[in-house]
Design brief:
By secondary structure, the chain is an all-alpha fold. The protein has a domain of 69 residues. The longest helix has 18 residues. The radius of gyration is 19 Å and the shape is globular.
């Protein structure tokens, strides 16, 4: 295969090997979707995002910043600690939502390693 040919194409299938329509794709639930935050969750989104961003501005790693975000989330929702995997997923969704709202603000003054 040369670079001009490109990857092999299968008719009726997407790049990920799924059928042309996602409702027929068994792996569709694993595809990334835009995070949603309700109006009631917006104050918590701000707290979690600020905890993450403040830690990153201080030069801490992504993992340490996630720990700070988790602490902010668990302070507001202590019951979420019962299912840490689900809480972690939601915390990441909330952070992603904050980034989508204003990426320039979110990453301003954040040091990269």
């Amino acid at each position: 295969m040369t670079l001009r040919e490109g990857p092999p194409q299968r008719r009726g299938f997407s790049l990920f090997g799924c059928p042309a329509t996602l409702d027929q794709c068994p792996t569709a639930s694993y595809l990334i979707q835009a995070p949603t935050v309700t109006d009631a969750e917006k104050p918590l989104r701000r707290q979690v995002a600020m905890a993450y961003r403040t830690a990153r501005e201080a030069g801490l790693s992504h993992h340490d910043a996630l720990d700070a975000a988790e602490a902010a989330h668990f302070q507001a929702h202590p019951e979420a600690a019962a299912d840490r995997l689900a809480a972690s997923a939601r915390i990441n969704e909330v952070i992603a939502s904050a980034i989508q709202v204003d990426p320039q603000w979110f990453w301003r003054n954040v040091r990269t390693c």
